[in-house]
Amino acid sequence: MPIKKKITLKQLADELGLTVHTVSKALRGLPGMSEHTRNEVRLLADKLGYHTKEQERSQLFENTPLYAGAGRRFIFLIAADQGLKSELHRILLESVQQRLAEAGHAVEVVFVPDDLWQPGRFKSWRDRNNLKYADGIFISPVIPEAVEARLIGLPMPRILLHFPPPGAGVDSVIWNVYDAMQQAIRHLIAMGHRRIMYIGDIRRSRGYRMRWQAFNTAIDEAGMSLPLDEFHIFELDGPQDKWTGRWQEKISRYAPTAFVCASQDALTRTYLACQITGHTIPGDFSLIGLEPEAVLPGILPDIARPTLPVTETGYRAVDRMLWRIANPALPYEQIMLQGGLHGGTTVRKVLPFT
């Protein structure tokens, strides 16, 4: 039987119409290309069975099979009130689906009601969705914490796509919100802003609370002091016109020059409030959003934002899941991924004393 020829970087590059250098960088996770190009390279490399020396050494060291055996069944859990309307959750799900498909596995989406903490509700929901027979579960953000704790306690491999609670016996993969907030505040300060208003929920989940903590840490480290509560807007409920009234009262009283919007809802409400009241961004206020993608495509401008590595988080979560299955007795790890800052068009320079 003839020996199968080894696939080379040049063969991958020729088939994709790329340079060998670009293909090599894509497989090593280095910057310098779009995610679409990187995914094309990875897919072709997996299809043809090409692995870098670093991948082979890593797989050997971590005892993770290079090739899938029998296909496994995984479950991706999403808070029912989020559904797939959240851009962040959609990107996470798509990246997990893609990575698992590359390895020959399947993933199902199961929505998590917020009342599963009630007696008897969790067990019946778990059994109805056959969670006990899943090979592993991915727990996405914003699931109510009492319910999340029950999910973390399930007896199968779990990956928490969130910041873990103290003492949680679970692997987690998430982007580094502290670093993202530091980058956002440093950028605004470099552009002359000192009166920076935080807009977003600070109570709903650990992720939102940590964003607020990170904001305060960044402000303190910059040597600035702002009123901790009255200067900012934490409520995002109610009709837009009433919310706009509360927003306008705040900006009239405190005269912020810039907003940090901690969620898509905060970003959308703030931008609509500006339109309703005749203000412009960045003409009257600068703005940075913390979500991965701008909402309302074609309506919102190119939002300045930290480039939260959401897609990469999904990929890394799958890799961690397969590693955990192969290494069930090793210690849990909390993995945080770091991105950069996209300058966008929504931040303008102001005089330092403004």
How would you describe what is shown here?
This protein is an alpha/beta fold and 354 residues long. The protein folds into 3 domains: 9-50; 73-175 and 309-338, Rossmann fold, CATH 3.40.50; 177-307, Response regulator (Rossmann fold, 3-Layer(aba) Sandwich), CATH 3.40.50. Helix content is 42%, strand content 13%. It is built from 12 helices and 11 strands. It has helices at 9-16, 20-27, 35-48, 53-62, 87-102, 121-128, 145-152, 177-190, 206-221, 240-254, 264-277, 310-326, and strands at 73-79, 106-112, 136-139, 158-160, 171-175, 196-199, 258-261, 286-289, 305-306, 334-337, 341-342. The strands form 3 sheets. The chain has a 6-stranded parallel beta sheet, sandwiched between helices. Strands 6-7-8 form a 3-stranded parallel beta sheet. It has a two-stranded antiparallel ribbon with strand order 9-11. Helix 5 packs across helix 12 (310-326) and helix 8 packs parallel to helix 9 (206-221). The protein starts with 8 loop residues before the first helix and ends in a 12-residue tail after the last strand. The model has no long low-confidence stretch (mean pLDDT 86).
